Amino acid sequence: MAATQTLSQTRAISQIPKHGVLTVFGYGIQVRVDRGHLFVEDGIGPGRRQFRLSRVRHGLRRLVVIGSDGMVSLAALRWLADQDAAFVMLERDGHVLATTGPVRSSDARLRRAQALAEHSGAALCIARELISRKLVGQERVARDILLDSTTADVIGRLQAELDKAETMDAIRWLESRGAAAYWSMWRDLPICFPKSDLHRVPDHWRAFDTRKSVLSGSQRLATNPVNAILNYVFSVVESESRLAAAALGLDPGLAFIHLDTPARDSLACDLMEPIRPEVEGWLLDWITREPLKREWFFEEPNGTCRLMAPLAIRLAETAPMWARAVAPVAEWVARHLWSRQRKSTYEALPPTRLTQRHKREAKGSSPQASLERAPQNQSVCHGCGKDIQYGRSHCARCAVPVQTERIIQAARMARDSAHSLEARTKRADTVRQRRKEQAAWAKSSQPGWLTEKFYVEKIRPALASVSNSTIASLLGVSRCHASQIRSGKRNAHPRHWLGLARLVDLSEGGPIE
Question: Which of 27, 213, 313, 480 is 20 to 30 Å apart from 179, CA to CA?
Fold first, then answer.
């Protein structure tokens, strides 16, 4: 009985987050159908989760499986297809293992046009357009986020030269030059971690350095956190590109820019090109506002940086955002291929299954936004790394010493400014000027009725109705000095009494006429 009480209790969850992405990870993963419900179980060791979703009001749009330890039944795949939900399987390093989406009818003429695109000239036009959009996005990131106008101008000139590119090699060469200029701006980009994690962070994790890994000579096998995040998110974008191509009836393996290889779906890589700057801009906005937790990453014996499950899940939840970004690109490619085919005048354009553009245009509604907002990241305390409310920079515990440090720093700066050579010189000049004015003033020039008693009993009480700035302007003193005169903590010099009497409209017999 005692042992039974120590066992972890699992609870079936029936609600999916608003973004519609369910990410499962761990060992012994199960995805099956139980009495019409989709049953999902995942976790590591005693930390298990269970999800039980009905066929109505489940909100599921993507089921993402991270890892390959477990089982997925055929009935579960059929359940997902019936509910128009996609299935994505990623390796722990972010490599796309499998994707499947709702089964839709396709037109063989579109796939034939895709296969003949190199001979019809469509491949060159599509490649030029996709790379042009990519360079425009890189220029925007360089100019608006990284604030490097010089590099942005270089990328802009390369984008303008695309119109003159008549071969695929020329297009690839311009793209490579743009990439070299673009990634050179990232080299010194600092990667921030909470202060409490710094002693556990390798030195080469604190800067971006280069996009190419020293282990592979390519983007694979990232050796620092930002490159690892980029690789993982690009894998999510690749899976969405595969689904988009398949939904439109395109072959994900027949590409225009990337070479056809059995190890990847090259068309999916083509469709990703205009989306890459969107991903990079999103990541830059994130890492420049929030530090990264050390516990989100681990380093393999060969130096490869990998993502832990909490961060991998958070990144997988951005899938709907990238699906919306890829959709118009994929539909443009399908429409361009269709335009190169011989067909009847009355044949309609291929359906816009991803953006529903044709339906919206028929109804007269506004175009759909190409990019929806990403799930809001939890803010991280810059001191201890604790999860805090979005928009804050420190938790309650770390905010007190930070605020105290800021006050001390401000006081130190004020003190240093007050004791600087320039400040001391200015104060000495003011003292000398005041002494000259006092020496030039003669007591005999004062009216007989303007005595110290008159000043104390009549003028000083009346100054309460006059602002400090007015007194300071009249006497040529600071507002602090004027405040002390107004409150009676300090008496004005007798040479100023007549001016103050006129200011409050007083004389020996009453108000000054």
Answer: 313
